From TrEMBL:
InterPro entries: Glutaredoxin (IPR002109), Thioredoxin-like_sf (IPR036249)
Organism of provenance: Deinococcus arenae
Protein name: NrdH-redoxin
CDD domains assigned to the protein according to its UniProt record, in alphabetical order: NrdH
Domain Glutaredoxin: 4-62
Signal peptide extent: none
Entries under PROSITE patterns matching the protein: GLUTAREDOXIN_2 (PS51354)
Pfam family of the protein (one): Glutaredoxin
């Protein structure tokens, strides 16, 4: 399984939904709160070229936007179809 990093902000419904999806799929991930950690924000911007969470990085694949947009991409990446 590739390394998974999820960049989040507190009280974000889309962030919570992605965490639930990853847990449901049995995927281990590292969560980084970009609001409370300037280094996490800098890493997210460098890796994804966006400044708005949630951002999900699976291996070298970068997904961002609302949960409904990320969900099919995350599932494909986790199943090896992406």
């Amino acid at each position: 399984m590739p390394e998974i990093t999820l960049y989040t902000v507190p009280q974000c419904a889309d962030c919570e939904a992605i965490k639930r999806l990853l847990r449901h799929e049995g995927a281990a991930f590292t969560e980084r709160n970009v609001r409370g950690d300037p280094q996490a924000l800098a890493d997210m911007v460098r890796r994804a070229d966006v400044r708005i969470a949630p951002v999900t990085i699976i291996g070298d694949q970068v997904f961002y936007g609302p949960f409904r947009d990320q969900r099919p991409q995350i599932l494909a990446a986790l199943s090896g179809r992406a």
